[in-house]
């Protein structure tokens, strides 16, 4: 090939690259949980001793049960995408997100990410005995924001959460909040920062309708800011309103991956809704 052609190809490649930047690559991922002492009637000291003395080193010999939660999942997520994760209870959605966030090891296969993905609700290391106010600072610092950045965005975070709509709750310890209020504050803190990859697990289901609308709006903004958003939800409406692409998991396997409407149509046929 002539040098000019090669240069042209390189330019084309760069253009393509500029248009679709991968943020998460999941390649043949398997995740297996190991549960110790899962069988009943094995809690006694003698049973434990005989387990220790038993020969063999396999999981079964050690009395460990395994749950194969994610089975050979592969996909590439790009910048600017909002990807919904759907599937029946126990299909592996949360497990997949936790593995992408680096919180669970891969049994087989690989996960490549651009930067550190933020998993909402886990990465926000909030403390129940501290006030909402202190938690905004703590959560902000935990996400890598500077004190100045947090100060500048503090009011916006509190306003977005709506915690103070019914009185001065932000100066009370978080343990006095309802689960919905706590979830709203967590979402507001996480959403205050620009994320390369933001993963939200059912967060929208906890707030009331007004807050859901606000958070859906924020997800659209985060997407526009060129990050990638993953959303696990059992609400097909939330998925429709916020996501442009959907991954459908069933029994740990990726059953379908495509545009929201196409996948939801098949999923609704499957669930009979
Ligand atoms: N900590 C754990 N230890 C052992 N098994 C687990 C653990 N967490 C989840 N599992 C199992 O892994 C499988 C996938 O669970 P996961 O929570 O990822 O599903 P999900 O699709 O998020 O479900 P849901 O819609 O009910 O939240 C299930 O069979 C579940 O029992």
Written description of the protein model:
The chain is of the alpha/beta class and 273 residues long. The chain has one domain (29-57, 65-271): P-loop containing nucleotide triphosphate hydrolases (Rossmann fold, 3-Layer(aba) Sandwich). Helix content is 41%, strand content 24%. The chain contains 10 helices and 9 strands. The strands form 2 sheets. Strands 5-6-7-3-8-9 form a 6-stranded mixed beta sheet, sandwiched between helices. A 3-stranded antiparallel beta sheet has the order 2-1-4, with helices on one face. It is globular and about 60 Å long. 34% of the residues are buried. The model is unreliable at 1-17 (pLDDT under 50). The structure holds adenosine-5'-triphosphate. Adenosine-5'-triphosphate binds next to strand 1, strand 2 and helix 3. Adenosine-5'-triphosphate (ATP) binds at residues 33, 35, 67, 69, 87, 89-95.
Walk me through the topology.
Blueprint lengths: L2 H17 L2 E15 L8 H9 L10 E15 L3 E5 L6 H8 L7 E6 L4 E2 L12 H11 L4 H15 L17 H13 L5 E5 L1 H4 L2 H16 L3 E5 L3 H7 L2 E6 L2 E7 H12 L2
Parallel strand pairs: 3-7, 3-8, 5-6, 6-7
Antiparallel strand pairs: 1-2, 1-4, 8-9
Helix pairs in contact: 4-5, 4-6, 5-6, 6-8
Bound molecules: adenosine-5'-triphosphate.
Defining traits:
single chain, three-stranded antiparallel sheet, alpha/beta, binds adenosine-5'-triphosphate, disordered N terminus, 273 residues, ABC_transpr_TagH-like, transport, Rossmann fold
